Amino acid sequence: MEHIVGPVFGFYLACYTLETREGHYGYAKLCIDPPDSVWDTGEVLRKVAAGPYSTPEAAVRAVISRSERRLARREARRNSEWLVLDSSPQPLVPARESA
Fold first, then answer.
1. Nearest to 27 by CA among 5, 48, 54
2. How far apart, in whole angstroms, are the C-alpha atoms of residue 7 and residue 41?
3. pLDDT per residue over 83-94, tens digit each?
């Protein structure tokens, strides 16, 4: 499966999937300019991967989501005086009440 998304925070994502024994993996190439195709992208700034997933559609959705999160964090760091110490997703845990 192949899919081009953008602009996302000013970038384009050229996404594709590969099937393995473990499942489907999604890959995204982060591009400055709109790519002609997934395979003819011009300069690629970064690659992002996600998987394995049970379907190609799920793998593409996951790699797009992961790419969007990375770009959003990049944008937040660039436009903020705050220092982002940990960019990995953290589970939300309710605060414990004190006894």
1. 48
2. 14
3. 555 555 545 555
Distance, CA of 44 to CA of 85 (rounded, Å):
26
Indicate whether 9 pLDDT > 80.
Answer: yes
80: its two tokens:
């903020």
Look at residue 58 in the predicted model and tell me its pLDDT. 97
Q: How far apart are CA 32 and CA 44, in angstroms?
A: 8
End-to-end alpha carbon distance in the chain: 54
Q: How many CA atoms does the CB half-sphere of 16 hold within 13 Å?
A: 9
**Strand 24-31, strand 44-53: pairing:** antiparallel
- Any idea which residue has 């770009």 for tokens? 71
Q: What is the 3-state secondary structure (H, E, C) of the chain?
A: CEEEEEEECCEEEEEEEEECCCCEEEEEEEECCCCCCCCCCCCEEEEEEEEEECCHHHHHHHHHHHHHHHHHHHHHHHCCCCCCCCCCCCCCCCCCCCC
